[in-house]
Amino acid sequence: MLKAILILPFNVLVTIPAVILYFCQFKIISPAFSLEFILMLFLLSLGFFLVIWTMRLFAAVGKGSPAPWDPIDKLIITGPYAYVRNPMLSGVFCLLFGEALFFQSKALLIYALIFILINAIYFPLSEEKELLKRYGEDYAEYKRNVPRFLPRLTPYRKK
To answer: Model's pTM, two decimal places?
Structure first.
C-alpha cells in the first residue's frame, strides 16, 4: 500500500504541483477568513478525508490498493463508494482545487482541470471496462446506479 501511495497520490498531489510552482508564479492565500480561505479549508479537509477513508477501505475490505499491480479482490460499495464510484479521485480533485486556492495559482488550477479531463476520459475507456470484466453484473448494476465523480444524495444499496 505504501508503494501505491508514494507513486500515485504523492506524485499527483505533491511532486507535480511542486514542479509547476517552481516554474510559475504563486502567492500563498491570506489566512484572513475570507470565502476563498474557507472554501480552501473545506476542499482540503474533504479531499484528505476521502482519500484516507478510501485507502483504508481498499486495504480492509478490498484487500488491495488503488495501484494496478495490487488490485482489490472485492467490489467495494460501502462508505463513500455508496455515493460515488470514484471517491478517491473525487478527494484528489478536491485536494488539487484546494492546493490551487492555497497557492493562488492559475497554473495549478489548469493542472487540476487537465487531470480531471484525463481521468474523465480514462475511466470509461479503460478502468470501467476492466472492472466490468472482473465483477460482472454486480459492477454493471453499481455503475447504473452510482455516478462516477459527483456523489448521489442517498446511499446506494445493492438490490
So the answer is: 0.89
